[in-house]
Amino acid sequence: MSTAKIVQLPEWHEQIAIIENAAAVVPWSRHNLRSCFNAGYQNFGAMTGDGNIVGFIIVQQYLRDEWTIMDVAVNPNVQRQGIGYLLVAQVTTAADLAQAEIVLEVRESNQAAQLLYERAGFKQIGKRKEYYPNPDGSREAAIVMSRKPQSA
Ligand SMILES: CC(C)(COP(=O)(O)OP(=O)(O)OC[C@H]1O[C@@H](n2cnc3c(N)ncnc32)[C@H](O)[C@@H]1OP(=O)(O)O)[C@@H](O)C(=O)NCCC(=O)NCCS
């Protein structure tokens, strides 16, 4: 179990692009990640005792009652220690308080992330064919998942 703590990330940190590049099969560009550090987003990081960011989650909150998890990633050398779950749980707890539904899309092949989201209470609500581009030019479906707010 990790001792990382979850902190708000109001500002961009270069470590976010480094983690994304190390963890994701098809990483978001630095430009696209940076564009999420703006009004309408609430982002969190997992910080170790020495102040290092080892994971992050990006949440779009354009609507008061429907949020979107845009991305979550954990540095590969500290995966499977509960950090991804802590990041998602931070957002589900806040969404319950705000009575917001959370929706997200995840690659059909990304079993690890789907299991993580299921553990956090998400259910599949749809599938978008040929949604994500692959590096070889083919395309992959997105699984659409949602989690309704739970009352205390
Ligand atoms: C998905 C990701 C964020 C999970 O982070 P993590 O810190 O390793 O996750 P946790 O240790 O909190 O795992 C929580 C649960 O998720 C599931 N899980 C996580 N990684 C898994 C894996 N490699 N295989 C199977 N299940 C996995 C398990 O159910 C796990 O619970 P368990 O350890 O009790 O079995 C991480 O694998 C990652 O950064 N992946 C690349 C980026 C990505 O795909 N992001 C999703 C974009 S939609």
Notable features of this structure?
152 residues; 7-stranded mixed β-sheet; binds coenzyme A; 36% strand; alpha+beta; 4 helices; 26% helix; 7 strands; Aminopeptidase; globular
Helix count from the secondary structure assignment? 4
Number of domains: 1
| Structural classification | alpha+beta
Looking at the structure, what is the overall shape?
globular
Using only CA atoms, what is the Rg?
15 Å
> What is the CATH topology assignment?
Aminopeptidase
Q: Report the mean per-residue pLDDT as an integer.
A: 96
Strand portion? 35-45%
User: Which CATH class?
Assistant: Alpha Beta
- CATH homologous superfamily annotation: Gcn5-related N-acetyltransferase (GNAT)
Strand order of the largest sheet: 1-2-3-4-5-7-6
